[in-house]
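User: For my dataset I need records formatted as: sequence, then structure tokens, nothing else. Please produce one.
Assistant:
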Amino acid sequence: MFDLKAKPFYLTDTAIEWVMNTINSMPLEAKIGQIFCLAAHDYSEESLRRVISTYKPGALMHRTAAAKTIREANLILQDASSVPMLLAVNLESGGNGVANEGTYMGKQMQIAATKDSEMAKRLGMICAKEGASVGCNWAFAPIIDVDINWRNPITNVRTFSNDPQIVQMMAGAWQEGFDQPLLPMASCIKHFPGDGMDERDQHLTATVNDQSADDWRASFGKIYQSLIDQGAMTAMIGHILQPALTREKCPSIRDEDILPASTNKYLMTDVLRDDLGFNGLIIIDASPMVGYMCMHQRIEALRLSLIGGADMLLFCKNTQEDMDAIAQGIHDGSITMERLDDAVLHVLATKAALGLHEKQREHSLVPSEEALEVLGCSQHRQWAQECADAAITLVKDNQNLLPISPEKFKRIRLTVLGEDKQGSFGDNERIGLRLKDELENAGFIVSVYNVETMENREIFSCGVESMKEKFDLSLIAANVATGSNCTTRRVDWITLMAANAPWYLKDIPTLFVSFANPHHMIDVPYISTFINCYSNNEFCVNAFAEKLVGQSAFTGISPTDVWCGDVWGAKTM
């Protein structure tokens, strides 16, 4: 058995006694329930209690909702469960990942653009305090993937950088801020063995980290080792193949037998457990993803995950069917009781390390309603505004356009892209109306491009002079947010002759700003003024407007390849 007194658990004899007494009193059905983290769907009390009584899950994950809704659900869940539950949430960019009222501090790449590790520490602190305020105790963060392939549609601004050293520094600072002694929460480093190499999405196919073993150890491996040494309590395994490491552990393996990490014993056990010394809880990424099921029958995949070293399975397709698959594996011998017990012990040890067993006795698993006051509090909002001001990056201004003023460019045409296809990670906002208001408050007259009318088909009837009669400056604002199940995250113009594209940019001053994706240079290298904001929150819109008119300086530094592999002409146009 693994060492319950070692990192990251550091359990006392009393806590170990609770762990052992709990597992020894569990029937098989309860043990199987402990290794599943289910998804919250229906927040009615009847439904929540039925889920707990039927499946006895060890954990449940929330999506963003009203703070009181999440808190009340957590009260019900903890009351209904005889074993205290791990209650998880994506806290990648602030407390908005758990509650509508939470602080949207900023995407991880925005944090890194400040080049200030204190900002990452603040993000971790906000995630811990606001996540814990509603009774959650497990954050699926930080993301320690590396944005090496700028075409990747899902890592992008969710990562800190394309530089492993920056990722390691910022993630370490995040963890430092996250570790709040009075608000114990478990972090979850993800997505092992490392996303950001491929240009595909694990929601749609198993992807590949194709680094050599040496290159992996010098980048992703070094980051994981650093966070493990720092005490990260849990790790999430991606549906990502790493052929070089797999072959290193099994030189005779055939290409067709190399599996994604989430079903691969060589990666989960031999590399993560043995080589990197990770003693904490291992959870696979969501099992309904196509990347998880595209190489196995579902029953086989679930069993391989557990056999390979996973301690918890995230989500189900059919909960009873998935749990039955594990039970049948125990009965037919394909899964040993020793491996199941080891997984359950990791789950219980995590709970004990968080003091959940003690909080259960004290009836304090969910804080009082007053704790919700930390959500979106003035201190956290101030930090978010300071971060936005420090992060926004002027990538280029080859036309010396900035700063602008109403005296020089009174009439602005604002073209907003991407708001019809928002991302799906619970931290995406619309920027169009907010940006219009900011510009008008600064004294500009702003007309928003009307997608429905295509401005009365001006592409077929307006020449340069007629366009100059309409506006003095064109501002293209992209809000193309990352999200699952999106094969690309690129600039999309109106299908009919790209009606809203700036064909006039050599006659009318034009600038481009992105609020959600730093890699749009591939599509607009010809626009001479280019700005990255990284996050589509209110703080970035406000800070951008101030910088546009020269009220504050641009200080952000690009933490990734904004030139998209040095696309032709981007730096000089």
